[in-house]
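Handoff note, outgoing to incoming analyst
You'll be picking up this chain. Sequence as last confirmed:
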Amino acid sequence: MKILKLSPIYGNNSGDLVIARCIEHAFSNFDVQVDSVDLMFRAPGSYKANEQSHRVSLRSRVSSTMQLVAPRIFYVIKKVLLLFGKDKRLFREIVSKYDAVMFGGGNLLMNSMGCDYIDRIAVFSEITKSPVIIFCVGAGPFLPNSETVKTKVVSNADVFTVRDKGSLAHFSSYNLSGRNLAPDPAFIVSDIAPRDKANEEYLGVNLISGYVDESSLPSLAERIAEFARDNRLKIRFINTSYPYDGQVVEKVKSIIEINSGDIEIEVANVEGNAGSVATAYSNVRFFLGCRMHSLIFALSHEIPSIGFAWDDKVPNMFDMVFPEIDRDKFIYRLGSSIDFEVYKDGKLDSEVDRIKKNFRKCVSDVMQVIND
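Most recent structure output, in case you need it:
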């Protein structure tokens, strides 16, 4: 059996490509070939100015500017291009070779900030006559009056699962339930490539562009350095999205080097495969992260992790992993001291194991629907 999977794998977020590899791995255990194709039909590395660096391309710079300055206009332009451009033809040509179509992994059900992901899913799912699988996706935010496109996606789907309760709440009027919840595929990344943890001597840190303002960077740098020094740890900044996150990292790294030159610091860049994740997270004892998938990678490798609540999906993710613990205990707030006391009960390994088992069960359920 062959499944065509579409998601935004060739944008500037390497986490999306890692998710795709996790889904491919999970279904390969059922002798199913999953082929991942970019939802926007972009070429690999198209966000880069060239193949030798993570410097952003002109296309990506224009896209980022439009998202911030004129998101509604950008959204309308994308809808027109979708309806009258070449992408529907490309989809028809590709989908005819497959037994089922999956839209899986990442925050796919949304149409804010100029994003047309859910519109693409609605259009493509109406074209195909094969089973349609909405698999472990995030949902929201949505523009006003989005019920029509949401209804199309739900009604066209033979399987519909989202990755957290916050995403499920966006579809509260469709009589969905806990059966429509499925863990994020990235939780199994450590099953594909385990990390080295023989000498856990690093504090891992992931930052996201635009969340921490310039005036707060020195305070954040001080807190990171303070925790590393008190626990005799080195610091490893881990980038999972390019190039803007890396620019913030370099600023914080420079502040720490100026004020705390005795602390060893390095930067690791995650590429789109499980091996790269394992390398980046090797010998990390604690992890402080912004991007949700940077946190999921750490938790998959059983690294005690806390996150910045820059988006609801971060506390929603912690709520799914630790349903019996107040999710606010996993949230780091700027200006406060960094601590990982919430992990002193030692339940991380059992909760991660539970999440992985739930995900495998969801894959099995999908296979049953397709086979039936």
